[in-house]
Amino acid sequence: MRGGRAERILELAEADAVVIMNAREPFLDPGFWYVSQVSGGLFESCAAVLRPGRTELIVSSMEAEEAEGAAGVLRLYGSADERDGILQEALEGADVIGVNYACITLAGAERVRKAAAGAELKDAGKAVDAVRSVKDDEELERIGRACVIASRVAEELPAIVRRGMSEQQAAAEIDALLRKEGSEGSPFNTIVAFGENAAKPHHSPGGKTLEEGMAVLCDFGATYQRYCSDLTRTMFAGEPGEEERRAYEAVARAQEEGILAMRPGESASEPDRIARGIIDAAGFAGRFIHSLGHELGLSVHEGGVMSSRSQHRLAAGMVSSAEPGIYMPGRFGVRIEDTVHIGPEGPRRLTSFDRSLTVI
Question: In a 3-state reduction of DSSP, which class is residue 304?
């Protein structure tokens, strides 16, 4: 790739400087870890200032050890006044300053305005997203490790999930196993949904217990050095009915064909169109109620999506989920998801687990 991460963001942002700023958790911008290339720390109220030929990391003294080896010049502060003074120095002479509107708080934006009085602030979010969208070898290695961890846990699902167990209990066991296998945490709240709850794509696990004949949907991910994976498997407690079996086969086929269309240069809407057409033709028109996939990396949802409304094109180096689903409200749901790397020669699954229909 041409230039470093900060240089590519600056070029696309068309600004004299770009500020990536954290507030307090949960208002943290993953772009800070992207440009600094550190994998630990919290870095609340810290900032990265990108200027041509120079990146300054304005970091609390309590995070000094975590920031060792970062890609940039380290500027340590001990108080809010000291931090704001360093920010003013770092932005001196900048007339146009890019900030990531999607992640910066109003207080953070006002801090930038005060530090660079008279400067124009513009949204650099699209530039940050575009550069982060194409992963380098180091990022792919970390995502790959997160995918291996999630895949190992997926292999244990038939043994983890048992009749009489509640959704909350199953989710807790999955989370514990993710940690045991090496995950640093969950990139999102693990979803376990039984029976009719599997028809809710973002169901929160509750006290519902697993009974014979229910669908079992488990959606979870792992993190490795801050990078994420995302994986979903649907199983059945006992032999599924004819409609459930048809739904599963349609989703599996839609995912397979959708992934094959995830190639560099292809419209991001095309894989979704293909997958959706397969599901519609199987008699489940209107039951696939979300996009085929979303990009992921430092965040489990970042960059673009693959939907019927997508207008961008896929590029080599992107990493996306592929997760078609069929949802029958009040009855059952089926979703199968893998994390996929779009390589120069085409797509490659990074998660690996048995996608055949599984009865537990």
Answer: coil
